Amino acid sequence: MTSETRRTIYPLINCADPAAAMEFLEKAFGFTTHSVHKDDTGKVVHAEMVYDTGMFMFGTGKPGTTAVYVAVDDPDAHHDRAKAAGAEIFRELADQDYGSRDYAARDLDGNEWYFGTYRP
């Protein structure tokens, strides 16, 4: 593990419109935007917000669903172990615009997990 890598778990909230959700949380509760990543059309596809010492992520997806993002040292090896254990890979391993190399899997109960090299 490098000194930059943090083994941390972040809640991931899926929203139809992350930008609107972020605006609401800022106005209603005083959450602060940490980072925002948009697609070529300007739509927010990934964002991070903080409140006090906690941080969570937003992604686009079915509203009201949550997942977990886990920072790992070697997502390639992790991906292979997940497949061998029977996980359903629903987003293949890839480098992301927001700086992570990650993938997404469902465990045997259908829970969504995201694993990658998150760098705050």
What can you tell me about this protein's structure?
The protein is built from 2 helices and 8 strands, in the order E-H-E-E-E-E-H-E-E-E. The chain has helices at 18-29, 75-84; strands spanning 9-15, 32-38, 44-51, 54-60, 66-71, 88-95, 101-106, 112-116. An 8-stranded mixed β-sheet has the order 2-3-4-1-5-8-7-6, covered by helices on one side. The longest helix has 12 residues, at 18-29. The radius of gyration is 15 Å and the shape is globular. It starts with 8 loop residues before the first strand and ends with a strand.
Extract low-pLDDT stretches: none
Which of globular, elongated, flat, extended, rod-shaped describes the shape?
globular
**Tally of separate helices:** 2
Radius of gyration, in angstroms, nearest whole number: 15 Å
Supply database-style keywords:
globular, 120 residues, eight-stranded mixed β-sheet, 2 helices, 8 strands, alpha+beta
Short description:
The two termini are 15 Å apart.
Draw up the topology in text.
Blueprint: E1 9-15, H1 18-29, E2 32-38, E3 44-51, E4 54-60, E5 66-71, H2 75-84, E6 88-95, E7 101-106, E8 112-116
Parallel strand pairs: 1-4, 5-8
Antiparallel strand pairs: 1-5, 2-3, 3-4, 6-7, 7-8
